[in-house]
Amino acid sequence: MSKQIAFTVFLLIASGVFGYTVNRLISFFRITKRDFKIDNIGERTKTTLLVAFGQTKILRKPVIGLLHALVWWGFIVITIGTAEMAIDGVAGTERILQFLGPLYTLIVASGDIFAAIIIIACVAFLVRRHIMKVKRFEGVEMTHKSHWDATIALLMILLLMVSLMGMNMGYMQSVENYVGAFPVSAMFLGMISGMSPESVHLFHETNWWTHIVMVFVFLNVLPYSKHFHVIMSVPNVFLTDLKPYTKMHNMPAVTKEVELMMNPDTAFAAPPEGEEAAPPSRFGVKDIEDITWKNYVDSLTCTQCGRCTEVCPANITGKLLSPRKIMVDVRRRMKDKGPHFAKDNNYTDGKSLVGDYISKEELLACTSCNACVQECPVNIDHVSIIMDARRYLVMEESSAPNEWNMMFTNIENNGAPWQFSPEDRMNWAEGIQLKVNG
Q1: Most buried residue among 67, 116, 203, 237 by CB atoms closer than 10 A?
Q2: What is the mean pLDDT of residues 168-197?
Q3: Where along the chain do its domains lie?
């Protein structure tokens, strides 16, 4: 009974703290705009099955991708066992799901095998980060804290898996006719075969408590870590923007004005009474209150893996732009301003996302090629924020390169980016046998 009480207290505390943290993050969504719409559920479900559960984009790097995919699939299987432990902890039972019979044996055997695979994978990840020093783990946004964030999370996962296998070993040694199969843990059973029954019981209980306490700690570390993608990746993939990569979203306020101007009946007419549109508060994105809720979900989902920056042509050629940094900066800015702005819409700290966190030079370096979006394993859309921030610079600050301003002027005057009269558009075809339609 004392074990049940202690476990229930731990469960309530951990759940309460996690609930408070998540509720705080959710409150920041009220700051953002609701411009992103969810449609085409069938296509979204297909994308989620392929990208999130099938790990198709992760597997583009076959070796390390397979290791990561195995960790993810193992996480799903082991979560079933963790849920069973939670039920056992509250109810005072032992292996309550054993009534599932052969299916239960398959689940626990798979969990045991995956635990060993995850241990190997975590060691490989640590070696890549601290010994091989893979280049894409570096960058101005990858601070000392970012590296320790990843290291601590990997060490916690290692401890979770070792304690799980230790718990399995203790269970096999202490129960004569145990339920399930533990093929990997059984290989190490000789390590405790000489222990007394009391010592085996202590060994089992120590590993059980270590595992469950680490689950609670890890759960509450996640929202403050890049490893929050463990929770956010599946929803974010489901929320993928299904438009073609190179298609930009139009600004509704601007689109409406253009449509009115293109219609001879409404171009110079006053709007009907009661239908006067309120002017937009801002064109584009200057700060976090201008981003969409999907942009914020993207920032919470970012794994900081660096695959986006690794393929960015601007970054490769020495420009300041790093798509990963854009996501890190959005999350960092929301962390800095969000708690205050959620309470007071007039709050200002004299800073803004564009200018103080993301520089103009970074924004102008983007080629809009969407290589970062294509490569991202969790389908983050970096370019949408960059484009909206550019719109702010051009439409609000009149801050654009001279070449852009010349192009804008030519489009306005000539209907094309080039500086010649529309009447001269077909001059190049004079003197050649070319059939021109229209």
Answers
A1: 237
A2: 87
A3: 2-228, 252-422
**3-state SS track over 112-144:** HHHHHHHHHHHHHHHHHHHCCCCHHHCCCCCCH
Q: Distance (Å, rounded) from C-alpha 150 to C-alpha 68? A: 14
What CATH number has the domain spanning 2-228?
A: 1.20.950
317-322 long-range CB contacts below 8 Å, 24 or more apart? 319/361, 319/362, 319/365, 320/359, 320/361, 320/362, 320/365, 321/362, 321/363, 321/365, 321/366, 322/139, 322/140, 322/141, 322/362
pTM of the entire predicted model: 0.86
Closest CA to 282 of 399, 383, 409, 388: 388
**What tokens does 97 get?**
């799901």
Q: How many CA atoms lie within 13 A of 338 on its CB side?
A: 20
Dihedral sign for Cα atoms in the order 117, 147, 149, 53:
negative
- The answer on pLDDT for 55 being more than 60 is yes
Tell me which residue has tokens 């489009």: 411
Confidence of residue 108 (pLDDT cuts 50, 70, 90): very high
CATH of region 252-422, choose from 1.10.1060, 1.10.1740, 2.60.40, 1.10.10:
1.10.1060
- Residue with the larger pLDDT of the pair 104 and 268: 104
Q: Are 89 and 417 in contact (CB under 8 A)?
A: no
What's the CA gap between 382 and 208, in Å, rounded?
42
For residue 287, give Cα distances in angstroms to 226, 267, 273, 308.
Answer: 22, 33, 34, 23
